[in-house]
Amino acid sequence: MSAFMKPHGAAGWATLLLAVIIILLGLPLVYMGAELAFLGGSLYYLVCGLAVTVAGVLMAMGRPVGGLLYLGACAFTWLWAFWEVGLDGWGLLPRVFGPTLLAIGVALCLPVLRRAEQARTTHVREVA
Amino acid sequence: MMSNHTPILRTLLLGATIIAGTAGVSALAQVPPADQPPGNGNATVSPGTPTPPQDAFSAPSPNAPQAPGVNAANIPDGPPAEPSEATPMVEQVTANPAHDDWPGYGRDDRATRFSPLDQITPSNIGHLKRAFIYHTGSKPAPGQVNKWAAETTPIKVGDGLYMCSAMNDMMRIDPATGKEVWHFHANEKYDSIPYTAACKAVVYYTSSTVPEGEHCHHRILEATLDERLIEVDSEDGKVCEGFGWHGMVNLMKGMGESVPGFVAETAPPPIVNGAIITNQEILDGQRRWAPSGVIRGYDAETGRFLWAWDVNRPHEHGEPKEGEHYSRGTPNSWAAMIGDNALGLVYVPTGNSAADYYSAMRSPEENKVSSAVVAIDVKTGEPRWVFQTVHKDVWDYDIGSQPTLMDFTRPDGSSVPALIMPTKRGQTFVLDRRTGEPVLPVEERPAPSPGMVPGDTRAPTQPWSVGMPRLGFAPLKETDMWGMSPIDQLYCRLKYRRAHYVGEFTPPSIDKPWLEYPGYNGGSDWGSVAYDEKTGILIANWNNTPMYDQLVSRKKADKLGLMPVDDPNYKPGGGGAEGAGAMAETPYGIVVSPFWDEYTGMMCNRPPYGMITAIDMHTQKVLWQHPLGSARANGPFGLPTHLPLTIGTPNNGGPVITAGGLIFVAATTDNMIHAFDIHTGREVWNDVLPGGGQATPMTYEYKGKQYVAIMAGGHHFMMTPVTDDLVVYALDNVN
Fold first, then answer.
1. Alpha-carbon gap: A118 to the closest alpha carbon of chain B (Å)
2. Which of B104, B241, B560, B613 has its CA 20 to 30 A from that of B451?
3. ipTM of model
4. How far apart are CA B207 and CA A79, in angstroms?
5. Distance (Å) from the alpha carbon of B487 to chain A's nearest alpha carbon
6. Does residue B9 lie in a domain region?
7. B658 domain-assigned
8. Are B9 and A31 within 8 A, CB to CB?
């Protein structure tokens, strides 16, 4: 049995695509975030990059907890952004705009992930 | 660790940025391309000693005689001249400009850029429409590397609008129709273009010896890219035979070894008490022993040599003897100067000694006068006073602005003849022009010292004009880094952390890049400021664009192919003036780039990148200040966003104030000309120009109608479209 979800229909494929994009966005955050932390800069990118990458992998495995982890990371990002730049529009733009767009996508994919998990648990129960 | 990104990571980063940023409201500034600093692992060279290291590229001896063709007009040299005095001058039109006129680059003898015209006001400016476009005929030919940025401000005297093209043709235009009355062909060669083909303005001169009504009573003077002074008659555009050699003076005389494009003039030479004062731009970053920055005086009537101020021959004011030349590598001045007939002085904003980023080989005389205002006696060429704005400058903080003169009223009611000196640092100095003493307080504050380059110590303090509002922001923090998405923002945060940065005057470094903030584009650059004497309002537009620089060992510089312009192997583009430079004859080369994300082309610091500020000079308080320029023509990957969002873009070109209560300024990289209500700072009008408006506008009245003119010549370094269009506006409801 593959660890990754078997997409069904357009919604399933869109969810998998979103998961792959989130992994691709998370990896550079981890890689460069590690160097930034090493150079004495913000730890946010390393921490958030790890969370986002794991979230993407879990989503690709069809686990709703991956989507929830991403949404949690996004909420954490908002708090961190307010802490760093307050209510400054130009300052908030790079920090929250893209992640929030993706979060909307993730929220829309949650039902797909739930169905995938249900299908898997049912499948696993039948096997058992 | 991780100093070299693999191509895979680069692709990943770029791709991720595109994905994350496609939907972004990415309104960003456009900044110029340049080579990137090499980063860590750039081997340190031990010496720092003044002995020139061995270079892979040979170059002519600085003492070699000039090759044929460097003296563009083939003007015979004649014997060296001894200092003499100028023919007495009659009053010039810029002393008391006619109401309708704009007779000089900064309009008047004080360079106020203020016009008493009031036909156009904030309430009727909706009717301001294009009246005509005039084409100068100078733009890059197919196949030529674009080095154009005309930067021209026309002048208007009586019935004539006079200007020069980027390649120094001079022309007279009908002020109402834009019809060309005459066109003088300077026949300049492409090779003579230094960093930029520019001609900021011509000078109107009324002769004291040729009677009214005769040829060359009224003359148009210019200084050229190929180092000539040319005077022509204002009525027919034919050369003044009584001036120099058939109307021309060879300014390469006494300059020693050079090649075309190494030495050039782009600013209008002031005429003070009958003496034309010349300065010249020497291409930055080429070699330590580049041609001289000498300042010279010439008789405005005859073109005969009067005197020279040559930094390393301080008390010799004559021309160099046969076989000798003016002292090389001395600070050059390329800004527009301003004269003072009453005090008999010319105020020279100086730049840096040659090899801008390495100071160990400079003489004490050079260190006293670089990046300073120097007041020179126009009778003798002797400096009267010096005020330095940066000590031992290694940041290319040469002064680009023209000083503006004013009468400063002290709290006790007494009046001081003063001079306002804007700088790239955003520090604006106000000086007593009789003595050079600060009128508003200047503090010497500790600066990072001794620096990181062996044998090249930085000055322990630098001057701050604490009495004037600063045209700049606080030092950069990691949280000021910007981008479209967290990924490119993170990349900029990394660039920030990888560099040396301890605030303003962070010393140059070899082991890794350093952050230069403010950058060398200013603060205030050559656009200068405008000043309304009646209200005491000063208008300044300025930049907020840090740079990312690194010194490289000679070996590395050779590997990068950096070589000076007079090297036989030199190819155009192989080390430009404002980018990477060989700095031959010093231990290091220099790599300079904007502090940007080179993948998206967006600046790493958060906006705004350009600002406009109104200051009340009576109280030295900011009246209003806001970002200047919209995001319409800029964006990531060089794509226009078409958003009418005022983000504040980098800008080059000055403002104009009118008695109608308006400010006109173009300058921004959104290719627009803007008008602001001077009292509120509100933008009341704008228009999209056919090219970049990197020039200072001007305004005049003719036959009862007020016009506003702007050269939309663009700017190669600002990456704005280049045209040969002079665009002129007038109200469409006035006849």
1. 31
2. B560
3. 0.94
4. 72
5. 6
6. no
7. yes
8. yes
